[in-house]
Structure formats: C-alpha cells, structure tokens
Amino acid sequence: VNIKTSTKSFMIASYQRTQFTAIKFTITFPEGYPDHSLIIDINSDKIIPPGLKKKLEHDLAADLPLGHHQQVITVITRLVQFIDH
Question: For 24-59, what is each residue's pLDDT tens digit?
C-alpha cells in the first residue's frame, strides 16, 4: 500500500497487485472520529464494478468498530485481501 497524501481530514492511498490490478482509495476522517465511521471511497471502476464498489464501501464502513483507532488498518487490510483474491 502506497500512501500518497495524509492529513487530519483524509488519507489517499493506492494498492497495486499487478500492472493491471490496482486501486486508489480515499479514507475520510469525519468530525468526531473515531466515534463516527470512516468514509471510504474506492476509485477503480475497472477492477471493481460500480455495484460491487458501493457494496464494498458500505460494508467496510459498517463493519468497523466505533471508537477504535485500528479502523484504518482494518480497511486497508480488507481492501488488499479483496484485490488479492
């Protein structure tokens, strides 16, 4: 995982498994984080179809335990696992 930009408000990163399998994603830290869920946006319609992309974004945010700073690591791990399998 390559972190491109990171601020208090958001993080932009990418993951490339092969030359043809890569995703870029943004994790936004809402006001009140970590007591509010992260906002996850995946920017790769070629690798992940739009319907599956929305479901993955929703499921990633919904499954995160609130008040837990491991949320970012959990999101990144799940995205990498999704792309690798």
Answer: 999 998 888 877 778 888 887 566 777 777 777 777
Identity of residue 39: I
Q: How many residues does the chain have?
A: 85
Task: Decide: pTM greater than 0.85.
Answer: no
Could you tell me if 44 and 52 are in contact, meaning their C-beta atoms sit under 8 angstroms apart?
no
Rounded CA gap, 75 and 72, in Å?
A: 5
Q: In sequence order, what DSSP letters do the residues of 4-61 get, joined into one string?
A: EEE-SSEEEEEEESSSS-EEEEEEE--TTTTSS--EEEE--TTTS-HHHHHHHHHHHH
